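Re: weekly structure request thread

Next one in the queue (238 aa):
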Amino acid sequence: MKRNISSLILVFILLLFWQGAAMGINAAYILPSPTQILVRLWELREPLLLVHLPATMGVTALGLCISVVLGLLLAISMDWNPRLEKTLYPVIIASQTIPTTALAPLFILWFGYGIWSKVLVTILMTFFPIAITVFDGLLLFTYGATKKDIFLKLKLPTALPHFFSAIKMSVPMSVIGAAIAEWLGAQKGLGYFSKRMMTQLDGAGVFAPVVLLSVVAMVAVGIITLIEKKIITWRKEL
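Done, posted below.
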């Protein structure tokens, strides 16, 4: 708490400013106040928590798991084979230049409104930081040992902090990817629900699932941080 007190104070000030600005505009469909959003979140708790949150978390979890496996495989492959690195690295970089909002409708066209069109968007947004960050963590040069010894005894422990950093970056991105895909085309999910509220000019209803997504993402990152501290015991906390 002592380390985060400055952040909490800043958030509190921003919320006060937001509340004042919303009260000054006095048009909830344009800018709802934080209190209006919390009230609406409570009113919509059943559909949000029982229907739309599980749908979004299912997409997020599946997409993130596939991204972790894909990212690790790419990172280890590029580290193991320099020729493969020269082939794959530019392709991985190029994949991030494609606008997600341009591909999401195509995925929906190809795979329909089911889960896989959303999962593909999530994978596209999250595999890149995992692959590149872990690959950077594996970059070590040494002599007098086999590739296997170098990988297991040096590279793997060194890359673990990079791996957890990549996961902590990818969690919010996976949530964003799932929400974007649901916004563009879905039958349930927090992104879909937010879009539906927008068509009804319900500003607080638009923000309510966004707040819920933010809370879930922060909790997930916090859990990953705790796991990281349990596993990486040799790194001193700054």
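The chain has a mean pLDDT of 83. DSSP finds nine helices and no strands in the chain.
Next request, please.
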